[in-house]
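RETRY 2/3 - previous attempt timed out on the joint model. Re-submitting the same 625-residue input unchanged.
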Amino acid sequence: MDAEALFRQQCTTAINEDGSANAERLMALVVETYRLQAGKKRAAEDRSRLLVKENGELKGNLVASKEDLAEQKRLFGNVLDNLPQGLSVFDSQQRLMVCNIRFRQLFGFSSEEASPSASLGSLIAKIRGNERGEKKVSRLRDAASEGGHIRHREWVMEDGRTIQSVITVLPDGSNISIHADITEDRKAAERIAYLAHHDPLTGLPNRIRLRESIDAALAGRKPDEHIALVHLNLDRFKSINNTLGVSAGDKILRQVAERIRMSAGAGNVLARLGSDEFAVLQSGRQQPWNVTALVDQIRRELSEPFFRGDKAVELSVSMGIAISPQDGTETDVLLKHAGVALSHAKSSGGNGERFFTAEMEAEIEARHALEADLRKAVEREEFELHYQPLYDLGQQRICGFEALVRWNHPTRGRVPPLEFIPLAEEVGLVVDIGRWVLRRACRDAVHWPKDIKVAVNVSAIQFTNSDLPADVAAALAEARLAACRLEIEITESVLMENLDEALPILHVLKQSGIRIAMDDFGTGYSSLSYLRRFPFDKIKIDKSFVNGIVEDREAFAIMRAIILLGDALGMRVTVEGVETAEQLALLQREACDEIQGYHISPPRPVVDVPDLLSQPPEHTSTRAS
Ligand code: C2E
Ligand code: CA
Ligand code: CA
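RETRY 2/3 succeeded.
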């Protein structure tokens, strides 16, 4: 294949594979041809001059060279006009030498305007559009082009199109350019950039965009200026998603976004960081007054009910606030501190806001340390179970024990469960701890008399993050303990957080012969409604209800009503936190089934169980009488 045929083939391939990525390749080919052309032309002229001068006989050869040239010119013209891109060649004086039809179309030049020897300056002046952005310049790589370079220019036309020019400037100053309409590519790129920086549900900027805005705000901050970052999280949004469904949840989130947007106003940046998490960046204001006004406004807006059909949904929000420079001068630090303040707002019950303080960070660090220790404790089994008697008022004897976990920390000593169970729940470790508790409790109880039960507390996380029925069955089988001797205590949170998932698990457990108790009855939001959803074997009235039953008629009336309710539903009733003989006597008169509390015994190590069981009931029955 000769050089021209090869060139033709290469051009066709480059043209067929569309896209601007090929522009540079195509350009390289055109440059090559241009050089070939120029080289051949010069050679032919030199040769003809020589021939004319020296040997008239060889005239025929000169004609052949001219024919060659004409054929090449025709071929070149053909290729040019079939290019999907515009092409132009200017000489070292910046006069147009060659261009194709597409070049004229792209820039809207007439044939007269873009005629040979038109100046580059006059053509640029006629472009109906403006040049955009900085020009990218890169050196030409091959040795022959030493001193040449490639430039990229971009034109935004009045009709909205974007045209890109890739200009190869040769060492002598002449240049060859490829021009392409990149409007669609640009739109796609803009769309991708938008998606990378925005949340698709609300259209708000996302975390990446927020970080960029904080970066910019911090970089441009004047010495006396403050920048406030508010991190917001809706309280209990998960339960809204669970009860109303995800699509209703999404609609509410959009309304929430709109209300926060209205409160934040145009000057502040609002972003959505996660499912029910938002952030507002307020810059250039005096603080903390402005951000206080802002969070008040947001709280007011969000306290109005949201409507789903005719159903009103109430929401509340927790907010954490960090202010630069005092709470941090770097984006990461500011974000972290607003998050720390938010988790404090959350852990104090939600529906409130907190400004970041240094003490908060110390607390968080202590928590991290505790978490690390807790992970080790799980591996090393640093736990121990204490047992607190459940006392049957009818039979006047102990009928079971509640297993209560303790953590024997290597340096801190014994850590009570209320200090580590909530943390273990948050970080998921409660699944492993709970599994250990189940196995230990069953293995302990199998040594007790057959009519003595063991009660184990199970957290809501164990219902969602583990196979609870399998764990329970394994613990029973391993200890060879009869299922009827095990009682599982759950709180309302198990049902509140995921009713649809928890109910079938509870039924499976109950069918296997295990008894299910509702713990801390009366402390939650809707203990009563949950009693209708599942046939609990037992309800344990929370210790807060015992306070005052002896002196306060109202407290007594409430206690009596709950005992009657349990009776009516056929559930056993246990009253927790019984500390005095008077309380015991009163409860016995009210036909309460069981009590638990310091009056009978505090939780004790397993070795004390035989003693507790063998003690005559005199200390209880005598005081009860
Ligand atoms: P709970 O299930 O309500 O356990 C009863 C708590 O009340 C125990 O606290 C017990 O020591 C205390 N108590 C018993 N009698 C009295 C009394 O007469 N007066 C007063 N004021 N308090 C009394 P403890 O052992 O500190 O346990 C606290 C909570 O920790 C438990 O509350 C339970 O929710 C959780 N917990 C304990 N062990 C486990 C466990 O193995 N797994 C899970 N998930 N949670 C556990
Ligand atoms: Ca309990
Ligand atoms: Ca309880």
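The CA atoms of residues 253 and 489 lie 35 Å apart. Closing ticket.
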